[in-house]
Structures are given as structure tokens and as C-alpha cells.
Amino acid sequence: MSESERLALQVEHVKALQGRYEEAMVAQGYDGLLISSGAAPMQYGDDQGWTFQGYGPFLHWTGLAGFEHAWLLIRPGHKPLLSLYQPVDFWHATLELTPEPWHQEFQLVFSESREAPEFDGVNQLAVIGDPSLLTGVPGSHNPEPLCAALDETRVHKTAYEIACLAKANVLAVAGHRAARDAFLAGASEFDINLAYQQATRQREAQAPYHSIIGVNEHAGTLHYQYYDTATPPKSRSLLIDAGVRYRGYCSDITRTTAGVGEGRFSALLQGLEQLQFRLCDMVAPGVEYVDIHRRTHQGLAALLSAAGLVSGLDEEEMVAEGITRAFFPHGIGHFLGVQVHDVAGKPVPPPSDAPFLRLTRTLEPGMVVTIEPGLYFIPSLLEPLLTGPLGHHLNRELLDELQGCGGIRIEDNVVVTDTGNRNLTREAES
Ligand code: GLY
Ligand code: MN
Ligand code: MN
Hints:
Elements: H1 3-28, E1 32-36, H2 56-62, E2 71-74, E3 81-85, E4 107-111, E5 125-128, E6 140-141, H3 144-152, H4 159-184, H5 189-200, E7 212-215, E8 237-242, E9 245-246, E10 249-250, E11 253-258, H6 263-282, H7 289-306, H8 315-320, H9 323-327, E12 368-371, E13 374-376, H10 379-387, H11 396-403, E14 407-409, E15 412-416, E16 421-423, H12 424-429
Parallel strand pairs: 1-5, 3-4, 5-6
Antiparallel strand pairs: 1-2, 2-3, 7-8, 8-11, 9-10, 12-15, 13-14, 15-16
């Protein structure tokens, strides 16, 4: 899709939001809603700020990820009022707004003040955003029922949002290719990160989340957060979980690569990828997301048996006894949007067999989810199994060998369509 097609869709997106927001506000008895874009807090005892990440509802309307101290006023029957903070400041540059078609749908003002804009004609005002920025602003702050109703407006993505998520996938895939090539050429975690950043033309601070880049056993730490500057003596595996933010929208992609000569690990990787394809294929309207999670455990049980890692137990027993959970301790995925873990995924809490699952809904067209099965060798989870009553079913020798490869995760971003699904990540790779 071309840039101009996306921009045309954005105008429709804004109109759709106006309708969704008006409905939510009227139902809750508000005739005005003021949204703060947020601002990076200062570090305690210092004059340095933390990295800024914009507030979800502001991004949902504007996609403007870099504007701090901005405000947006929504009123039924009125154009939204967007007030952007543009101080005269010789210490910092001020962000400029390049004219785009969606601006026509807003009343746009620029302010040298961080204060909320002045307006009248509102009787019942709600104000949402970081509470530390709302002090002194009149109105009802972050009212729970309204916030929940607004979160609900983000569950079904508009055509514009899906186009942005698709583009965020295309951009990130270029980074993942560069990262894989760097790993295979013997780069360190630090240099793999640089390769990813260079290919995606994205600063770390702009990324939707801190890229997870684990070589060898580091791949077994789910959210591994450091980058070794040295290459290990032998590069056995790479797990990279990294995305790109495009016009506010996030991609969230994980790829695992086996090092040269890692036959066993490579076979497991292929097995997990086959399972991941089947799980992505399950995405369709009417499907319970938790069923995809449960199917993952069944598939992992089969894979662990076939690989000779577990023996003497049938697949059902392996799941029931928590063996698959030790290899795959997280949930199968989550909603994706202007937040990586997008809101409103859990109208009901997750079941006890999936405590970390972030999405407990029945899938409907327009939802965008991640599908991210994993298979890890995490000593703190495997050791109790190995030393427990089921330990003799596990192949310690093989586990010891594979532990140096850390683990595998494969993560795609998938749209629920009217008839099935659209895999934005595989599409970007093809
Ligand atoms: N990148 C974090 C996650 O996959 O949920
Ligand atoms: Mn991820
Ligand atoms: Mn994810």
C-alpha cells in the first residue's frame, strides 16, 4: 500500500474514532474528554529525563509518538481540538508537524504553555492521562468505566491501523534479516543490535520496546536485557525479539537462528516453526484465543517426545504434569496496536493453566494478535523437574547439551479477518 493510500485511510480512521468515542462518552454521561499525550518524567535527583513513550489514547487518535505536553479535546459534534506544545527553547529543538490530510479533521493549535488548552461549553469533563500531569486540571480524572470503554475502542482495528501495523512489520523484517546476517557473520549481541537499528533506521528510544537480543544461553531469558560487546567463542544460537514503531503502531516479531553445526537445535527450531504455522492458521473469527494457547502445549508435548527430550509419558500427561509449562512458561501472545501489549485483552482473568496469558477473548474480525510459541531450556524451571518424581522421563544429557542454545521463540503478528487471518509478518517476509 502506498503512503498516500495510508494517509487517505487515516482520515476514515479519525472519523471512526469520533463515532466510537462519542458513543462511549454519551453512555457515560460526559460531553468533553481531555487527553494528555504524556511527558517523560525526570530521573530522581538528576536533571535528565527518562525516555518518552506517548499515552495510548493520544497515539490512537494522532499517531504522534514524539509530542510531549500535548492535549487533545474530544467533544460530541465538534472537531477534535489538538493542542501541540511548541515552546521557544534554545536548549531543545521543537518538533514540527509536516502537513498531512488528517490535520483537516482537527482544530489544530500550537501552545507555548504546558497547561491544558482553555475551552468552554463542556459541563461534564473527563481528563485522562498520567495522573502526575493532570494536577490542577478540572474534571473527573481517569474515571474507570470511561477508561474501560475507551480501551474497548482499540480492540477492533480500522483499515488504517492494519495498514500501519503491516508497514511496521515490513520495516522490522528488514532489521531481523540484518540481525540474522550479523549473527551468522560472528557479530556480538551489541553489534547485532546495531545492525538491527541501522536496517530499521530507528533509534533505541523510538522502538516500541527494548529489543531482546540473546546469543546462546541468553536466548533462554525471556526478556534478556543486556548486550554483550564480545562474541562468545562459539555462536550457537540467536533469539531476537524486536519491533518498529510506525506512525505510533508497533510490530513485535521474534526470530531464532541456529548457529552452524547445531543440528539438534536446528531440528527443534524447524519443529517449532511447523507448530507456529499451525497455530497462526488457527486464528479466525469465533476461535477462543486460549484454545490456541492450549494447542501450543499439545504441540510442544509432541515435539519434546519426538526430539527424545521427554519419554515414557503420553502428550496429555506431559501437559497435565506441567512438563510443557517448564519449557514454555509464557502465554501464546497478546493484542497488538499502539501499545505492544495492547489494552482490553482480559475482560476475564486467564485460566489457572495459563496464568500469564494476556488475551482471554474470542477472536473477532479486526483484532490483531501475536502468535509466539517458545521452547526454552531454563535451568530454574527444568531443575525442579529433573530432581522431582518425573525426572527419569527427561533426558538430562540432551537438555544439558541444548541449554547452551538458550531457547527458541517464533513470533508473528496476525490480523483476524472476516474469514480467517492475515499474517502480517510472513507477508512482509515474502
Ligand atoms: N516483545 C515482548 C513480547 O513479545 O511480548
Ligand atoms: Mn516479542
Ligand atoms: Mn509479543
